[in-house]
Write a structure and sequence with these properties.
Blueprint: H1 2-5, H2 8-42, H3 65-89, H4 105-128, H5 149-186
């Protein structure tokens, strides 16, 4: 219903640009994680442990300077939004979605707890994937399991494989649907 009410500019320019942006952010995050996997295999310093004696502003947290830091911020926000969307899209938690002017207090508390857990896990998530090396003032790099190569390696490989699989599945299904629609109308 919203697509039918959208202006031609939104349908023909806005939605395709949004999809290209989402595809680009997903592709960039997968490339960064794959690069981090290679770093893990070649160098022990790539492990997501805490950075000792690195004061803010004295050490660059990105090899690409300001552009890399801005890209890290955008990717962290993208991961935050996609994890919230994925959380509420899972069959177990769809009932937790708030309803306008009809949300009981227990559901509001459940949403607050869920968002608090997701936001608390985000720094460790982005650090384990190698998207950022910044500690976010929480000293999240001191977790013992962040020093375990196998856990970090499998976590990165799982993220890269599952994200690539979802991306290929979504894109190929969309292309298949468009080809069926195009050939179905022509025949």
């Amino acid at each position: 219903e919203l697509r039918h009410r959208a202006s031609p500019w939104q349908r023909n320019l806005g939605y395709p640009l949004a999809m290209l942006g989402l595809l680009a952010l997903t592709g960039i995050s997968v490339l960064i994680v794959c690069f981090h996997v290679l770093e893990l295999l070649l160098d022990d310093a790539a492990m997501p442990r805490g950075i000792q004696d690195a004061s803010l502003g004295q050490v660059s947290f990105s090899i690409f300077g300001s552009f890399g830091a801005a890209l890290q911020v955008v990717l962290i926000f993208y991961l935050m939004v996609s994890s919230v969307v994925g959380f509420y899209s899972s069959p177990l938690f769809t009932r937790l979605l708030p309803e306008r002017q009809d949300t009981p207090l227990t559901k509001i508390i459940g949403n607050c707890v869920s968002l608090l857990v997701l936001s608390s896990a985000l720094p460790v998530f982005s650090r384990t994937l190698g998207i950022t090396r910044f500690d976010l003032l929480g000293d999240f790099g001191r977790f013992n399991w962040l020093g375990n190569f196998y856990i970090v390696f499998l976590y990165n490989m799982g993220f890269a494989a599952l994200t690539t699989l979802c991306l290929v599945k979504r894109v190929s299904w969309a292309v298949q649907a468009e080809l069926i629609r195009a050939f179905g109308e022509g025949g």
